[in-house]
Design brief:
Elements: H1 14-27, E1 34-38, E2 46-49
Antiparallel strand pairs: 1-2
Length: 53
């Protein structure tokens, strides 16, 4: 489990985009390789990371 906090508001997907950017930076991947698999509208999310080229 990874915990991430952002200052962005939860409106119009801004907070979700910020979380995905933090995770992409952490894993040294492009943002397009990380997406929210489940629970887009609640605090606890399931994220998928695509390590394949």
């Amino acid at each position: 489990m990874i915990k991430a906090w952002v200052d962005n508001p939860g409106e119009k997907g801004k907070a979700n985009k910020a979380v995905l950017k933090i995770l992409a930076d952490h894993f040294k991947l492009k943002s397009s390789k990380i997406s929210i698999l489940k629970h887009e509208k609640i605090r606890i999310k399931i994220i998928t990371v695509d390590y394949e080229n």
